[in-house]
Design brief:
By secondary structure, the protein is of the alpha/beta class. About 25% of the residues lie in helices and about 15% in strands. It has a single domain, classed as pyruvate-formate lyase- activating enzyme (Alpha-Beta Horseshoe), CATH 3.80.30. It is built from seven helices and nine strands.
């Protein structure tokens, strides 16, 4: 499904549904969206936001002829404890079978990611990331770095506090963004500039997604008068 997410072109959800594990999940957009999709009669959300695996979705990347960047599981978490290991492996098989696409996988379950990583054959077209919403979540980065993913990235969104010592050694990309939607928690511009400067000094591509807020379009994406859309080479 095409998407308005600024750092990707497509979303693909072989897994839908999740449970909240940390402060960044408080106002989860996917949890808000799932009941609406259920009310619209969409089959994948017949059980709302319960964790479900969708075998039919495994065929979808093979039907996309043109190369594209694909955010995997915008409506769930591939490494959720309720997703069987065998299904996770099948998702990776589907990604290996379509090397023309670049798949961007993001998880908050970094411990399970690290546990499974030795069993995964990591293709070059799979980028692996973890969410880091505040300084208390930086341990996820340690788990990410144990993987054999060719590109390792951080999604620092929603940024809920300063992370002055964000570990970027071994990281290939950092995305930063503020929370958006109802109840959005504020983000201090100084937190963003601090992370941007850290990435610039380390030579790590930096992508600023949004300021967020209740009206994210009005808040925009400019940081110090420009957009920051840096992405690792595909």
């Amino acid at each position: 499904m095409s998407t308005k997410i600024e750092w990707t072109q497509e979303t693909w959800n072989p897994v839908t549904g999740c449970t909240k594990v940390s402060p960044g999940c408080k106002h989860c957009y996917a949890a808000r969206m799932a009941p609406r999709l259920q009310a619209m009669g969409q089959e994948k959300y017949a059980d709302g936001f319960a964790v479900r695996c969708h075998e039919k979705e495994l065929e979808r990347p093979g039907r996309w002829r043109n190369p594209r960047s694909v955010f995997v599981n915008s409506m769930g978490d591939l490494f959720h404890e309720e997703v069987p290991e065998a299904f996770i492996q099948r998702v990776f098989e589907a990604m290996r079978a379509t090397p023309r696409h670049t798949f961007q996988v993001l998880t908050k379950r970094a411990e399970r990611l690290a546990e499974m990583s030795p069993q995964i054959t990591w293709p070059a077209n799979v980028w692996m990331g973890v969410s880091v919403e505040d300084a208390n979540c930086t341990d996820r980065i340690e788990h990410l770095l144990t993987t054999e993913a060719s590109v390792k990235f951080l999604s620092v969104e929603p940024l809920l506090g300063p992370i002055p010592e964000l570990p970027v050694a071994g990281i290939d990309w950092v995305i930063v963004g503020g929370e958006s939607g109802p109840g959005a928690r504020p983000m201090d511009p100084a937190w963003v500039s601090q992370l941007r400067d850290r990435c610039v000094r380390a030579g790590v591509p930096f992508f600023f997604k949004q300021w967020g807020g209740v009206n994210k379009k009005k808040s925009g994406r400019l940081l110090d008068g420009r957009t920051w859309d840096e992405v690792p080479p595909r």
